[in-house]
Amino acid sequence: MDRKYDVITLGEILLRLSTPINGRLAQGDTLMKHLGGAELNIASEIGQLGLKTAMISKIPNNLLAAFIKNQMNASRVSENYLISDTADDSRIGVYYYEYGSYPRKPRVVYDRKHSSINNIDIKDVPETMFYNTRLFHTSGITLGLGGNAQKFAIECIRKFKEQGTLISFDVNYRANLWTGEEARACIEQILPYVDIFFCSEDTARLTFGKTGTIEEIQKSFCEEYPISVVASTERTVITPKKHNFTSIIYSAKNDSYYREEPYNNIDVVDRIGSGDAYVSGALYGYLKHKDCRKALEYGNAMAAIKHSVIGDMITTDLEEIDSIIAEHKNTGYHSEMNR
Amino acid sequence: MDRKYDVITLGEILLRLSTPINGRLAQGDTLMKHLGGAELNIASEIGQLGLKTAMISKIPNNLLAAFIKNQMNASRVSENYLISDTADDSRIGVYYYEYGSYPRKPRVVYDRKHSSINNIDIKDVPETMFYNTRLFHTSGITLGLGGNAQKFAIECIRKFKEQGTLISFDVNYRANLWTGEEARACIEQILPYVDIFFCSEDTARLTFGKTGTIEEIQKSFCEEYPISVVASTERTVITPKKHNFTSIIYSAKNDSYYREEPYNNIDVVDRIGSGDAYVSGALYGYLKHKDCRKALEYGNAMAAIKHSVIGDMITTDLEEIDSIIAEHKNTGYHSEMNR
Amino acid sequence: MDRKYDVITLGEILLRLSTPINGRLAQGDTLMKHLGGAELNIASEIGQLGLKTAMISKIPNNLLAAFIKNQMNASRVSENYLISDTADDSRIGVYYYEYGSYPRKPRVVYDRKHSSINNIDIKDVPETMFYNTRLFHTSGITLGLGGNAQKFAIECIRKFKEQGTLISFDVNYRANLWTGEEARACIEQILPYVDIFFCSEDTARLTFGKTGTIEEIQKSFCEEYPISVVASTERTVITPKKHNFTSIIYSAKNDSYYREEPYNNIDVVDRIGSGDAYVSGALYGYLKHKDCRKALEYGNAMAAIKHSVIGDMITTDLEEIDSIIAEHKNTGYHSEMNR
Amino acid sequence: MDRKYDVITLGEILLRLSTPINGRLAQGDTLMKHLGGAELNIASEIGQLGLKTAMISKIPNNLLAAFIKNQMNASRVSENYLISDTADDSRIGVYYYEYGSYPRKPRVVYDRKHSSINNIDIKDVPETMFYNTRLFHTSGITLGLGGNAQKFAIECIRKFKEQGTLISFDVNYRANLWTGEEARACIEQILPYVDIFFCSEDTARLTFGKTGTIEEIQKSFCEEYPISVVASTERTVITPKKHNFTSIIYSAKNDSYYREEPYNNIDVVDRIGSGDAYVSGALYGYLKHKDCRKALEYGNAMAAIKHSVIGDMITTDLEEIDSIIAEHKNTGYHSEMNR
Amino acid sequence: MDRKYDVITLGEILLRLSTPINGRLAQGDTLMKHLGGAELNIASEIGQLGLKTAMISKIPNNLLAAFIKNQMNASRVSENYLISDTADDSRIGVYYYEYGSYPRKPRVVYDRKHSSINNIDIKDVPETMFYNTRLFHTSGITLGLGGNAQKFAIECIRKFKEQGTLISFDVNYRANLWTGEEARACIEQILPYVDIFFCSEDTARLTFGKTGTIEEIQKSFCEEYPISVVASTERTVITPKKHNFTSIIYSAKNDSYYREEPYNNIDVVDRIGSGDAYVSGALYGYLKHKDCRKALEYGNAMAAIKHSVIGDMITTDLEEIDSIIAEHKNTGYHSEMNR
Amino acid sequence: MDRKYDVITLGEILLRLSTPINGRLAQGDTLMKHLGGAELNIASEIGQLGLKTAMISKIPNNLLAAFIKNQMNASRVSENYLISDTADDSRIGVYYYEYGSYPRKPRVVYDRKHSSINNIDIKDVPETMFYNTRLFHTSGITLGLGGNAQKFAIECIRKFKEQGTLISFDVNYRANLWTGEEARACIEQILPYVDIFFCSEDTARLTFGKTGTIEEIQKSFCEEYPISVVASTERTVITPKKHNFTSIIYSAKNDSYYREEPYNNIDVVDRIGSGDAYVSGALYGYLKHKDCRKALEYGNAMAAIKHSVIGDMITTDLEEIDSIIAEHKNTGYHSEMNR
């Protein structure tokens, strides 16, 4: 397969404005400025691990575009399919984030309506794009935006699939975008195209009405649809600042389940984006090594390490992730640094 | 006159997100968080000088509402007429600001479309409001928003006028909101209701097609419309970080012009909002002392001091402004502090 | 009862100067600037929950007065009974605070002697004040200042009581202000006036010589004095950064005890002011709902959430506290945010 | 002369709490923490230039003492004569400082009453101290504190003089400490002991009633009193952020005046302490080189460079000052760095 | 010409550690972290203007490599020719920078000896590189490093030239790297290969012993060597914080001189790198438009705007530079922003 | 014994550049600036506890020298034996530090090759130095630098020993400096001179091939060499942010072991330097009280408290450490502050 990109993602790029840790939106006079958005996180993280990635999105043609493009390039995501919105009311979606500290929960305010991605149109992208990547990924957030974005996403899925591209999809259910029924109805439309499916146990139960063990649930998706791989993260919240994290992956091809010991007592600095980091690691492992065990290990390691930094995505490289995996397989963890 | 408020303003409240001084939007990881909006600035500053003020606006019912209300209360602006927008797509308008440094200009990105004020409706406010203040103020920015906001503003002007309320209006022309012709057509509709009119010489010429000296221009407005007072600021930009500032006020009643020596060599830290500070000082002087000379002095002093702080509005009090006026009338300026 | 305020508190307003977290007073070049003082914290927090509050205090007539007044207004505390000290040696009390980190303890340096409140005089306040509130609150800190402040506080208690005002008192024993015997002697003078009494188990034993269970102790206060309600907080320090917190309230009227499950594993960002937050929640619950169970729930929730922010007082609103209470009654806690 | 110190100063050590530049005391949540006090500035700066210095002062025995002592040691000022105040109401004087920006003036709030130095007593210091230095310096600020501090200062002057120590005195008139008449009466008491006298032209005229040219004024002091050297700074304020600075020194011994070209267009970052820096440079030049020309050059250079940093005192060393002097004598100034 | 890159530069990448503005290296506890190095600045800035660039350098294989690569990618510089130094003593050169404020000069401490670039070897780069770009640029700094770096640079010049690549060279004389004579001897070796030559008037006189007017000097270089274009910047330092800047370019081909009005009263935030920004603009203009007038305009505009930001290089884009040029040709400058 | 210093240490002074907590070297634009180096940490901390200390090192003669000297003086370490390196390629060693957060490990990048200490020569120091202290301390880091530094260190040990000075040595094995065999061979050369030996159990086993219990290991060192005291720290890492810490000391003289309860659940803010803090406390206790129990208690307390602050060394004083010891012996720990 001679395609330019390993992964192309589609989704909304958001400006994330968060309070300093321990601060509140109602107080203070500074905000931290980051980029976010599930599919951007994933493209950036896979790019940092060394695969070639690009992202399809639509952003306003203003000063913030330079911020977005610089960051994408910094993490090796091609801006070739970034569409510039020159309309008068073009805007970048924003979300405001306030860190929690038990018993005060983290809180998020979304201001993403009317953003440029909602005007995206299939004519905005070149036909060549559809046979230019090994894998296409999007999520339930993009579908949940509804309207043009949903329509565009579904069309992309079909067109990429026609070109023999692997289709990856993460349900990523957000109650503030749509109801469970809306989500189910829409996602069931695209499941026939999906090869790699990310769905948490809770969502499988609540949104798709699944029952039984997680293993049964995963298998049932592959029985209903021509899905090859189902991955489900498993998070245990010990305290808001200590989580355990692992996942289970089911491969339909060899009818096997993949598991490993959880990363226990993860220091949670910033939990946002850890699910996306999981997807990025899993897709990297799957594409690079064609091995669900590698998908599992990279997925868990990326998710675990993501918790340790502020912002939606981790800045890392393959060497670091490999050493985290090696350490994890070895003895759990070691506190001390090498010097 | 026994009214609860001295001044009620109407306008949009904006979240202002600015880079650190010398920073760029395309770089860095922090933004400064302030509130802005011409009519909020004015209500806050008049409130700080000791008159009773309130503001009519519509804001989303989210975590940022607490930030807005706390700040309004801190500067003694009543939140009684602040309307809470509980709609799903409610949002606060945002503007991003990057400071300039010659030859790099300051730059601003507005993201105010679809904000909550655009859904404002005359039924959102109680009828009692209209006879509850001595003066009502709004600006060409509010009219320039068009749609419901414009309609609401015009209705407010009529209803306040009916109750014998003084009407104050600042043209505040913004090319990114509407064309000069649109502005002129709309503003000429409301000029018959206006008592105190703020209009710069440039705008008078470019938008209203006025000719002649500034004195002739000011007088002509009072001849065409039943305007009592016309105030025009006069700014000289020596360098982007050094301005001179003064103003000229015409009183139709006694057919007199009021002037004073400019504040020269103002240290420009942040120029945004200095025009609003002028309006606030002028309205304070006019309402408190019923004297255009006082309007001039307070207006110029408030405008001058505004340049010295970061953010849309100054934090000050009457005692400080009085001492600045005294100093200014005395000898220009004195560099040293009292100790 | 038609009184303007729900709560008036009396106490000293302090400028709190704290190091950055992990910093030391002996190092570094910045300090964080907050306001503090038990009774200010309480008035602010009750004000934020929606009741009308004012505070009696005396502050110097200098630039810091604006800081104080802005913050009071921001949290809806009336400055009507704030007395301006124009004396030459007027000053605001200061305390310096350094965060601890085991085994390094938090440390505090008080510099509150000779502050303006020590010159407070009953003639500084209008007679009308005494029949203008439903409840008056002060604490053992104010009495412990001694001299004029103590005399003023005792006089206030008497005068408010004469007007049928509820009297609330928090022992808040501070060894650096007075000895246990001095405290006991003084407080026993005012207990005959007190309706709502806050006293921890330790203080009851050490200062008042009480014995028996906490339930017996609480009841004994109501037997000796015409106290209606006794509230005692119960804190377990697991580590300096993890506390459990709950309380027990005794109502003499129906001879009942109120308790609930503790908030466990509270993330302690800043422990200062959590006792005051308890008082504010308890008084809010009591006044708003006339129900000791509500006093308990609001008290515990306010105390618990206070630990999560830097500074003497929390910035919050009723909606947030209600959701924390609901969450707490439900399942302990949930780590994830709503989105 | 075999004395341990070159210079011992006497004065109050103040904690300086300043807003960030462009910030206001009424806003924001951080303050910068520095030490200040004229005589500390002088001892520190002379210490940095390489002479041995110590300072007599009295400070509270609390956590801030470590901050003070660390800073003194960092600038090579001996803490041998620093007296620890263990009294209950011991306190360090504080001053709050807000930077100005035309037309907003810098503002200062002093909170120095009741500070530990006001309890200083001659018994606090060892008799050996009086023959242990070549020069003793204090200022009109210490005398202006009145009470014990004034009494102590006058006694020190007498005792040091008895031991053949040079006495240096800077009038440093502060209207917020005493009236001009009080200052004159007190200072005239100690002038018979003074060898090196710092007095600005304005103060000479206003406080001492001098007339004539600055040269005549300087000479007249030496005619009335056995003063050897009189130094007067000359500052021209072009704008609050641009000053010119030079000085004139009169030597009675050879009846000569010393002058040099002013440092023109000094970038004023922080003007506080530039007068003290002048004294430190002048005393250094005088003691090290026994030459009034050197006193002039070091004084002017130290004053000029002080304006360039935040805080009461400059951090520098002899090499830097020598290069500034060389540059200044050469061509005025050069913008570029050496690389 | 079908080459992959428009510009390849060769030079050392430095970690720049600067104090906060107004801070000193001897004080404080933070440093700002940037990348620097003349040839990196140039590649980054040309990359931002839209041409394809790469940089040849050698950097240590440690955590800082990720910082360097992310930044290069962010500004669109290919890391393809970045050589990783895995030696034990590999290191990145560092320079410490302290901002000046008259009369305190900016100061710089270089710690670049033994850095990885000093081990660079012609075998580190592929032969294909030499016919893969339209233009190769390096500077006297790289030659001044001596040893392997110098040898490598000279070899690169020869090899690129052999492939018909344009050779650009900026003298950029640094006295702390070599003497004028050493510089002259070495540079005269490579001048026969140079097409575009950057040399200031001062350097031409002091290092190359040129006399006559700047026009005569520029022409003489083209007469002695087969140089096509000579560009010389002209800077006037009004104060350290106000500079004027322009340049003069001589084209040998049409024997013409190009000049324009200086950018006057530039606000100097950070002067470092403005010379490199000039080179980047000039090379961009020359390569894109094949026009020395464009080289002049882009060079001057890039240099002027560079002064306005902190760090070695500007973050910008073509649209901004075009608008600065348009503004400059129009009326000098305009203080106000567009809104 | 009449010697000027209690302790002289020898080692490299490093500039420590660390990310903000939770930050990464590959991101962000600030670094924290501290000094580090095992032997500097020890001299500073013993100096703060009240003994007289000096340090032998060699540092470049540039702007950073002032930073180093100011900090040394601030913590009462004499700079008398600090050697100034005026060579062209003089440099201060640097280390970059990134905090970890499980599962992301802390990471360190050393850049200490070619630093000034590597040119140190016995002729740089005066002969008088060798009989001017009670105790000399250095570590395996200094020996591991190899070359001149190693040679100098061994010579110092011999010369100090000749003068009857106590020799203290901490193995402090660093794999990035030398191999275990190199370390063993070198250290065995100097063990015959050592009086006080610091060696962890792990190092004893891995580097020196010891077997048996820690007690047996400690004793065996004293049997093989004329060592008086062996101290070994014992650290248990619960999580990277929670450690337990204690130590065991063996005194050959009275053939006794000293132990105490560990400090449990230490809040680990910054673990770097805690081993050095142990050495400083142990040496202080030993020198001041001539008692291994005191060495143990001060060592453990200093190590424990070091974890609570950012940077290589703690800022503290004897009073604080004494209160930590008292608290520790009493009841483990107490969360609350004294007020």
Automatic annotation (TrEMBL), chains A, B, C, D, E, F:
Q: Where is the Carbohydrate kinase PfkB domain?
A: 9-312
Q: Which UniProt keywords apply?
A: Kinase, Transferase
- Keyword Transferase recorded: yes
Molecular function as annotated in GO: 2-dehydro-3-deoxygluconokinase activity
Any coiled-coil regions, as ranges:
none
Q: Which Pfam families match?
A: PfkB
Q: So what EC number does this one have?
A: 2.7.1.45
EC class name? transferase
The family annotation for this protein states: Belongs to the carbohydrate kinase PfkB family.
Entry-linked PANTHER family: 2-DEHYDRO-3-DEOXYGLUCONOKINASE_2-DEHYDRO-3-DEOXYGALACTONOKINASE (PTHR43320:SF2), SUGAR KINASE (PTHR43320)
- Protein name per Swiss-Prot or TrEMBL: 2-dehydro-3-deoxygluconokinase
